[in-house]
Amino acid sequence: MLSLPAADEFGGHFGTYIALVADRDVLGQLEENRRDTTALFAALTDEQANFRYAPDKWSLKELLGHLADTERVMSYRMLRIARGDTTPLPGFDQDSYIANADFSGVSMPQLLADYEAVRAATLSLTRSIAPEAWLRKGTASNATMSARAFAYVIAGHELHHLNIVRDRYLRA
């Protein structure tokens, strides 16, 4: 079981996501998130999944696409840092990703298959990281980050968005 990253293993807004996972088994949380996210989104029709709770907010399809895209970026960062690459990694513009993806034209089964593939790859990566490699640090989005912190960020980011789905989308 990975322990919670120390304060010097993450910076910036990443702490918000890490706090959502707290002292849970992060790898178990990634599995639990996969089940919860898949169950929640699999129950939606394409019409329901194109719902936005406000005109300037993402649709549920866009949100699911965002989860997969962000996990790809964060897993890549985790890989680079775990393997000892200290090259600073830039941030990314999530809104640009959404604007250029056209998730509305992708079916829910395809979006879910993509999400599942990304999560399977992340879980496979976490199984290949040696214990000492989890503590390696690098720079991402101008913050010092450990490989371990990124496992927590991925899980916490998803929890953050699942909370938003339940509070703002499903209640509307």
Automatic annotation (TrEMBL):
Domain DinB-like: 29-164
Domain of life: Bacteria
Protein name according to UniProt: DinB family protein
